[in-house]
Design the sequence.
């Protein structure tokens, strides 16, 4: 294949995926993207970023059969995925670049999309995903992906909490919110509230997200326990997006892990955690890694300018 070597005209093939409405532009890591941060900032923008109606070389059939040309503008991040299909099961190295140009060590819903992307390419239901927070086993079946998420950690060095702090942060007041800090691949400050809809997340979350006790910042998750059920409602304000997303997989695992730590939940049975974008099924066993399960959808595909300063899709 002849590759276009002129950066002013070079384009990059992408696919758009979402897991419970946490949506990602997916790009093969082999594609030459000169500045991944600028690429993510430009195409994730919620008013002027990528949309099904705007992309060049859109796969029309896929769009027509997968929901028409309507769809959200922008995305919650760009997943750069390097497939290593000589292994059994196939492996994929996942790098999430967020709308602010930062990278995140882990993304639960991103990992579910990465697993589906690799499964679509290889036909394998089993995928190993290499992330900055460890290698995660994934299973893709019947439109759903299940990810092994590691063991949630409360230790100050793992969250991480401010240097010198020796005790886990359990139900403490941080900037007006009573939170528990946990690492589920990335840090989360989880607050249980009576009604998640009554929380003005955009107002209360930023101070917690930047609180001194979290030297690397934190995602901020509010959760509501549904009485009489093994179920919770969830809303998350994400670091890197700097706003609320429709779903957050590491946040859903954090809700279940913190519920267990606080004695709101017992046993190993699955828990339903519902962010605005849909339902996720979580297990947090007493011994062993947590799991995250939920639907994955491939929305559409197309091409984008590799150098967004030269974008031709807008
Ligand atoms: N949406 C993700 C979490 C992505 C990482 C987060 N924004 C961070 O910077 O820690 C998920 O589904 O887990």
Sequence:
């Amino acid at each position: 294949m002849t590759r276009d070597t002129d950066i002013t005209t070079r384009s990059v093939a992408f696919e758009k995926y979402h897991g419970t409405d946490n949506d990602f532009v997916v790009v093969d890591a082999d594609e030459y993207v000169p500045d991944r941060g600028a690429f993510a900032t430009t195409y994730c923008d919620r008013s002027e970023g990528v949309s099904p109606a705007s992309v060049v070389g859109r796969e029309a059939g896929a769009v027509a059969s997968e929901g028409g040309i309507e769809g959200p503008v922008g995305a919650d991040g760009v997943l750069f995925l390097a497939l290593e299909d000589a292994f059994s099961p196939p492996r994929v190295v996942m790098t999430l670049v967020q709308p602010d140009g930062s990278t995140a060590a882990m993304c639960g819903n991103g990992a579910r999309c990465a697993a589906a992307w690799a499964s679509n390419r290889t036909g394998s239901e089993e995928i190993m995903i290499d992330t900055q927070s460890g290698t995660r086993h994934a299973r893709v079946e019947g439109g759903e992906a299940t990810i092994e998420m590691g063991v949630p950690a409360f230790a100050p060095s793992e969250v991480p909490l401010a240097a010198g702090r020796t005790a886990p942060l359990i139900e403490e007041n941080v900037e007006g919110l009573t939170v528990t800090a946990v690492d589920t691949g990335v840090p989360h400050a989880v607050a249980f509230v009576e009604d998640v809809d009554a929380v003005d997340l955009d107002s209360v979350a930023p101070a917690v997200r930047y609180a001194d006790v979290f030297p690397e910042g934190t995602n901020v998750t509010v959760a509501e326990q549904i009485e009489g059920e093994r179920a919770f409602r969830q809303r998350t304000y994400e670091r890197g997006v700097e706003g609320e997303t429709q779903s957050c997989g590491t946040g859903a695992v954090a809700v279940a892990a913190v519920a267990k730590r606080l004695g709101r939940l017992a046993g190993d049975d699955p828990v339903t955690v519902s962010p605005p974008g849909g339902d996720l099924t979580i297990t947090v066993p007493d011994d062993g890694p947590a799991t995250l399960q939920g639907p994955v959808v491939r929305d559409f595909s197309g091409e984008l300018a590799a150098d967004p300063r030269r974008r031709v899709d807008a």
Observations:
- Residues 60-67 have pLDDT under 50 and may be disordered.
- The CA atoms of residues 5 and 32 lie 9 Å apart.
- The radius of gyration is 19 Å.
- DSSP finds five helices and 18 strands in the chain.
